Amino acid sequence: MIILGVDPGLTRCGVGVIEAGAHRRLSFIHVDVVRSSPDVSQDLRLLAIYNGLVEKIETYAPDTVSIERVFAQSNRNTVLGTAQAAGLAMLAAAQRNIPVALHTPTEAKLAITGNGHAQKIQIERMVTRILNLNTMPTPADAADALALAICHALRPAGALQGGEREEHLTPAQRQWAEASKKATKRRFNADRGM
Amino acid sequence: MIILGVDPGLTRCGVGVIEAGAHRRLSFIHVDVVRSSPDVSQDLRLLAIYNGLVEKIETYAPDTVSIERVFAQSNRNTVLGTAQAAGLAMLAAAQRNIPVALHTPTEAKLAITGNGHAQKIQIERMVTRILNLNTMPTPADAADALALAICHALRPAGALQGGEREEHLTPAQRQWAEASKKATKRRFNADRGM
């Protein structure tokens, strides 16, 4: 199963692609950043990000696109551009009938390091280790996109759907499952306002 | 010149189309609401809104798409969906090389009623009068989309570009120009954070 992770942004939009095989074996396929110039108008920036994402999705033909869930509480200066970039990634996937999964940064951190408040460098190191890379993925900030893809591959819900039972979860996975449940509740409440 | 106004939203996205002729003569062409069901996933909702907007843009072939500018300070529950819907409208226009104009709600209210804090009913009445309609446009909340199209047609900057001089502005237009300048400053500061 090919998973394409998206760390959304209007200036820099991280894209990371992995393959999830049997026995939770994960392999690195691709990592990159899709950019738009801050010097052009917002509509042209969104078009550049959309075209870049479409190219990645068509090149790597993922089975799932895993996108960071954006919250209104995030950095006010960038949250709207981030939400719009996430929206374009959802659109590009939906246009191709590719399922979309949304994961919070906390879920991704927990899935990868066992700590929902992990630092950036810890995530980069764990992504490097999990994917058996010789060096840290570059560009460095695209590690978050790989983290979102890995998070989706390792999600407890998926493991349970696959026939595993809850007692087989590691403590980190159990913690992750709880964070995920909380996020689902918050999401439900937010959606009701929409 | 055909102007298509968009009042962005994830559940209801208003679309209003007018023609702006010589001597600021404005004619009504179309008003409607593009919807998405709250019962499907966010990616499918965005796809429905995008497809609906594309259909309107291809049907009415506007020279400009005038979209409400979304601010991070807006209602927290809906601001992200609103920003995403606005992003899709910008994308659909940019894909067709149609210029995009962003106008704040205050600019639209000022342009139409001369009062930046006008009530919804005042805007609906003025839209009805300006476009010489026999009855108020339905659905009622799509009047905002017509207001955004009218706002773009009546913008002082456009009038000035058209060869008019600043002293020819009405007091309402002058007030509008000042609100617009303020919004441009705020936009500049917000963009620097992106």
The largest inter-chain interface, given as chain pair and residues per side, is: A-B, 38 and 37 residues
**What is the number of E strands of chain A?**
5
Strand order in the largest sheet of chain A: 3-2-1-4-5
Radius of gyration of chain A: 16 Å
In CATH, the topology of chain A is named Nucleotidyltransferase, domain 5
- What's the name of the CATH homologous superfamily of chain A? Ribonuclease H-like superfamily/Ribonuclease H
Cα separation of the termini of chain A: 33 Å
Question: What is the count of helical runs of chain A?
Answer: 7
Oligomer: homodimer
Average pLDDT confidence of chain A is 85
Number of domains of chain A: 1
Low-confidence stretches of chain A: 158-169, 187-194
The CATH class of chain A, by name, is Alpha Beta
Biggest β-sheet of chain A: count, sense, barrel?
5 strands, mixed
What do these coordinates show?
Chains A, B: InterPro entries: RNaseH-like_sf (IPR012337), RNaseH_sf (IPR036397), X-over_junc_endoDNase_Mg_BS (IPR020563), X-over_junc_endoDNase_RuvC (IPR002176). Chains A, B: Its cofactor is Mg(2+). Chains A, B: It is an enzyme of class 3 (hydrolase). The structure is a homodimer of 194-residue chains. With 194 residues, chain A is an alpha/beta fold. Chain A has one domain (2-192): Nucleotidyltransferase, domain 5. In chain A, 49% of the residues lie in helices and 18% in strands. Chain A has helices spanning 42-60, 79-94, 105-113, 120-130, 143-154, 156-161, 171-192, and strands at residues 2-7, 12-20, 26-35, 64-68, 100-103. The first copy, chain A, has a 5-stranded mixed β-sheet, with helices on both faces. In chain A, helix 3 (105-113) packs antiparallel against helix 7 and helix 4 packs across helix 5. The radius of gyration of chain A is 16 Å and the shape is globular. Chain A binds chain B through residues 10-11, 38, 41-44, 46-47, 50, 70-73, 75-81, 83-88, 90-91, 93-95, 100, 102, 190-191, 193-194, and chain B through 10-11, 38, 41-44, 46-47, 50, 70-73, 75-81, 83-84, 86-88, 90-91, 93-95, 100, 102, 190-191, 193-194.
